Amino acid sequence: MKVLPRLVLVLEAPAFQAPRAIVLALLSHGCVVRVYRDSAEFERALIAAAARHQRHIALLAGRTEFVVRAATRVANLGTGVVLAALVAPLTGAGLQRVLQVGIGVCWPPTAPPAQVAQILSGLTGGGDTSGVAPEVPNAQNGQRAAVSPGNESCWQLASQGWVVQAPGGARVTLTNIERSLVLALLAAPGQRLAHAALMAAVAADRPSAAAGSPARAARRLSVLMSRLRRKFVAAGCEPPVQSVRGQGYALCVSFGSQAVAVAPATVSAAAEP
Asked: Which parts of the sequence belong to the OmpR/PhoB-type domain (predicted)?
């Protein structure tokens, strides 16, 4: 049986161009790269690759709105293709949106080309897959999703943001609210946020959880964070989140950029600690 080459299908937004260095890096990893500007042609190529059972991945390149629309259309095709994205600018709010529509891994266009190529090559079944963790359940819909490869010396946010992977491989699956909290901290300047800003992130996912007086909301946040920290202890690793007395919460570990690359979000002065 003939083995087909690994295929990366790129859809670029108008007036946006995926960095040529990334394309060249993919070629150096043995991938066939095809770049499209026409959405219909891109979708036909995805369907054809799935029909051939060819190992492939879809890379969407553009601003947040374009990537979200394109990912939604691709998901409706039902081919089950793995989605990746180059998003400019990649803000905290934009990161949450692209993860919610099924993007499994994303970077800003300035990400190191070799890093992007290594991960995309691994997701198509080629290259060094020693850093690829086993499949884990997707906490949102019960389907199985592959954890993106990463540097084992760093913490990783994987499986579309539903799994935190600690150095050494321990994995903690997040609830909806826990995921919102971790994403908010990752996207914040200095990876630190005040109680009010974190409760705003919770309210976006579940308004009732942030209802009531500020004191009640703060107690609710304390309970949520305590539960989150206990999950990491139960998994045999130190919690990546710590309380900053009188200010809020902060990440106290280093997250790698391989699984999900994050640019600083715009946070109002009132929300900062």
From this structure: 144-253
Fold exhibited by the domain 133-266: Arc Repressor Mutant, subunit A (1.10.10)
Kind of pairing, strands 248-251 and 241-244?
Answer: antiparallel
Q: Name the residue among 123, 127, 126, 129 with its Cα closest to residue 106.
A: 123
Domain boundaries, the chain: 7-129, 133-266
| CA–CA separation, 125 and 183 (whole Å) | 28
Would you say 118 and 28 are in contact if contact means Cβ atoms under 8 Å apart?
no
- Which residues, 6+ apart, have CB-to-CB distance to 173 below 8 Å? 136, 137, 139, 159, 162, 163
The answer to whether residues 133 and 127 touch, using CB atoms and an 8 Å cutoff, is: no
CB 102 within 8 A of CB 83: yes
pLDDT tens-place string over residues 167-217: 878 888 888 888 888 878 876 766 788 888 888 877 766 777 667 777 787
Evaluate whether 147 touches 185 at the Cβ level (below 8 Å). Answer: no
d(C-alpha 120, C-alpha 182), whole Å: 24
pTM over 0.70: no
Instruction: Give the three-state DSSP class for 268.
Output: coil
